[in-house]
Amino acid sequence: xxxxxxxxxxxxxxxxxxxxxxxxxxxxxxxxxxxxxxxxxxxxxxxxxxxxxxxxxxxxxxxxxxxxxxxxxxxxxxxxxxxxxxxxxxxxxxxxxxxxxxxxxxxxxxxxxxxxxx
Length: 118
Prior knowledge:
mainly beta, 0% helix
């Protein structure tokens, strides 16, 4: 199983980024997926999850209306569109393969850094 995130960077407050996660080594379309983040000095925080067929998506309260999770099963890729970024969104963002519930995972990638600062 390999999960490789990309798309992170430094943006000003109010800016946007689109994260991608390329999956390989397993049948991507058969697994729900999540995005997790970890801010400096804090524990991991579940951000968003999506079902296998994209029919249902879930978000932590702090990102609702600003972030959109999506997936392309033909490309084995997971996405996170982040708009209206705030300094408190600064973190290392990981994609993760869901194990049972959306905040439980068995594999995750190495992460991509997002920094929001004026």
